[in-house]
Design brief:
Distance between the termini: 140 Å
Number of helices: 3
Shape: rod-shaped
Number of strands: 6
Structural class: mainly alpha
Order of helices and strands: EEHEHEEEH
Helix content: 55-70%
């Protein structure tokens, strides 16, 4: 595989430019390429290691007159040579190529600054989510679990207390019922003895 050459980006001046624009004649990094493509959609951009030197040489010149591009036609939105300005672009409004490049470079720099500002905001937002909101959610969840465990222990204590009370009541009820039954048994036994005594007395009278 071809090795990608390290070039300096014309816009941000960082040594990570891996693209080249034939029309602008300079290298671009990935972020600057996206901004460049947004404003200059018709430009030919390729990866730096794929540059065709012969095509590069031909694009620098007007294909019709074989003259170097010197102007930019605002009406046609294209580069023109000095011959084109007096032939195919009569009465059109022109500006110098360097002025157009400078204007576009300024726009790209402004767009790049705005993009960097947004990246800074995103970075702060990510940091806030990771370091603040995530910790807050974790703390709130831990507190919820702690309260749930506390309620669980309290409910168990209440259930055990109620259960103990009911067991004690059942024991007291059993003792009371046993006392009542023993009292009735004692009465019945006394009645039985009285009845037997009466029967025995009657038998004696009969005899």
């Amino acid at each position: 595989m071809a090795q990608i050459q390290s070039n300096k980006c014309k816009t941000c001046e960082k040594d990570n430019a891996s693209y080249f624009c034939y029309e602008c004649q300079y290298y671009l990094c990935e972020p600057c390429k996206l901004l460049h493509d947004k404003f200059l959609k018709k430009h030919t951009v390729t990866e730096s290691y794929k540059i065709d030197k012969s095509v590069f040489a031909s694009i620098l010149k007007c294909g019709r007159h074989d003259l170097k591009f010197a102007h930019y036609c605002k009406d046609c939105k294209c580069l023109t040579c000095s011959e084109c300005t007096t032939s195919g672009h009569k009465s059109h409004e022109f500006t110098n190529v360097s002025e157009v490049a400078a204007s576009i470079r300024t726009d790209l720099n402004e767009a790049n600054c705005k993009a960097k500002a947004k990246l800074e905001i995103l970075s702060r937002l990510i940091e806030e989510i990771q370091n603040v909101k995530m910790k807050k959610v974790k703390a709130e969840n831990d507190q919820f679990v702690k309260e749930a465990r506390k309620i669980e222990r309290e409910l168990i204590r209440i259930i055990e207390s109620v259960t103990e009370q009911n067991v004690n009541r059942a024991s007291d009820f059993l003792i009371l019922e046993q006392l009542n039954l023993n009292y009735e048994i004692a009465n019945l036994k006394k009645l039985k003895r009285d009845c037997r005594s009466v029967t025995e007395t009657i038998e004696q009278v009969i005899k």
